[in-house]
Structures are given as C-alpha cells and as structure tokens.
Design a protein that fits this description.
258 residues, alpha/beta, Alpha/beta knot, Trp Operon Repressor, Chain A, 2 domains, two-stranded antiparallel ribbon, 43% helix, elongated, binds S-adenosyl-L-homocysteine
Length: 258
C-alpha cells in the first residue's frame, strides 16, 4: 500500500492540522495511509521574543521570514521524515512563483508516495537563501496571491491524498474525474427524479449501461469543448476513435439543433 507523510513547515500549525481533519483527508489519516505533521519555525527562534520575521534589506513594504528559524524547522522536518522512513523527502516551497500544481502533478506525487516537506511562506515571503540552501522545488496553486502557504499546502495534500489507494471508498469514482484523462467530468444527478420541475436526462434512467456510458462520455466531451477546449488538444482524446465519433455526433446534433 502506498503511504504518504507530509511535514508542513508553518507559523500556523493548527490551521493545517485542524483543516486536515475532515472527510476523505481525515479518513486517509485514520486509516494510516497519510500522516501530517507540522513544524513551527517559531519554536526554532532563538531570541526572547521568538522573532521569525524582519524588515527587507533595501527597504520596501512588509516583512520577510528570516532564514535561520526556517532552516532549523526544515531540518527538523527532514529528520522526522527520515525517522518515518524517507530520508530523501523533497522540500517544496509553496509559492506563487512555482509551477502550477495540477492533477498530473498530484498523480505523480501520489505515485512516488513517501514523504514531502511543504514550506509555507507568510508576510512578503521567505529569505532567498532558504530557497538556495534547502528548497528542492516550488509549487503554486494558481496565478493569484494568498496571504500564506497554509491553504495552498492543504490543497496540495488533499489532492494527493485522495489518489492514494484505500482513501476513497470507491476507487472507480476517480476514473471519470475531471482532469484525470484530460476531460472535465460529466454532470451528476441524484434523487429525487424531479427538482422544481427539472428532470434527469432520460439516458441515465434507461438502465442501459452502454447508453449511460455514451451519454456521460459525450457530456464530458461537450463540457470540455465549451469550457476548456485547449484540454482536448493536449490530451489523448482526439486520438481515440470512439471519442472522435461521439464528438462528431455532438457537433452534428448541435449544428442541426441550432
Ligand atoms: N511577495 C510574494 C508573495 C507573498 S504571499 C511574491 O510576490 O511572490 C505569502 C506566502 O503565501 C508565500 O510565501 C507563499 O508561501 C504563499 N502563497 C501565496 N500565493 C500562493 C500561491 N498562489 N501558491 C502557493 N503559495 C502561495
């Protein structure tokens, strides 16, 4: 069974451990597949006030996370990772300047299993020398800036954990999911059959597995075409004969409808 260990370096450990305590992510930890441990650089601060930030050299607004407490906390996380069983856990800095985390990266990290050390910045960010001395890579959750790395780290850990065998009740539910095969997922319906007069597509009520599967695949193709057409070019979809046929049916339907 694959197992994951996350060491999160953060000035707000409760923010991470508390938020990790719900739903699939919680069950993954209870089942032993995933472990989350927090390391607070404030515990490594050496002065009386436990200072972890200071003004930027050269002036300018805000504060910068000091190198030394952060390096010490990363060191503790490394030791804990080694004690858990991975002495080569990569140290990843959460940063809006990193490559954008996506489903492919989540899958690659889940496949590696083992330990990951996620470093959460605060304020204006971290002293560049931390990056040079102790960081193996950076990860962004999108082209926007939030005030700390904790929410991004939670996003990354959640996305990876749910891919680990045994964390999701029905692993089949992962197969059709958005982005896994380059398509957005088809629309979902559950009981009752009518909601304020709106019914359920008849194919889904037909009991005919082939009709259901075709309907869903076509709906996934249609959604992707409408919302994220570039995904169709990136993935394998256009190379697949039955997908090409469904896409053609869809285009024909739409042309005759319109
Ligand atoms: N001044 C920095 C941003 C600081 S935001 C810059 O312009 O690059 C404070 C911290 O929040 C960052 O150090 C990082 O750890 C985290 N953060 C902010 N936006 C993020 C994003 N999109 N992805 C991952 N981490 C992010």
């Amino acid at each position: 069974m694959s197992r994951l260990w996350f060491g999160v370096v953060t000035l707000f450990p409760e923010m991470v451990t508390e938020a990790a305590n719900f739903g699939v992510f919680r069950r993954a930890q209870e089942g032993g597949a995933v472990q989350v441990e927090a390391f607070n650089p404030r515990d490594d601060a050496t002065d009386r006030h436990r200072t972890v930030d200071d003004k930027p050299y050269g002036g300018g607004p805000g504060m910068v996370m000091m190198a030394e407490p952060l390096l010490a906390a990363i060191g503790r996380a490394r030791q804990a990772a080694a004690a858990w069983g991975d002495d080569a856990a990569p140290v990843l800095l959460m940063s809006p300047q990193g490559p954008v985390f996506d489903q492919r990266r989540a899958q690659a990290m889940a496949d590696r299993s083992g330990g990951f050390i996620l470093v959460c910045g605060r304020y204006e960010g971290v002293d560049q020398r931390v990056i040079e001395l102790a960081v193996d890579g950076e990860l962004s959750v999108g082209d926007f800036v939030v005030s700390g790395g904790e929410l991004p780290a939670l996003v990354v850990m959640d996305a990876i954990s749910r891919l680990i065998e045994g964390t999701i009740g029905n692993p089949d539910s992962l197969l059709s999911e958005s982005h896994l095969d380059g398509l957005l997922e088809y629309p979902q319906y559950t009981r009752p059959e009518f909601v304020e007069g709106l019914g359920v597509p008849s194919e889904l009520l037909s009991g005919d597995h082939k009709r259901v599967a075709d309907f869903r695949r076509k709906a996934a193709l249609g959604r992707t075409l409408d919302r994220r057409p570039e995904l169709l070019l990136e993935g394998e979809v256009l190379a697949d004969q039955s997908d090409r046929r469904l896409l053609k049916d869809l285009l024909v339907e739409r042309t005759t409808d319109g």
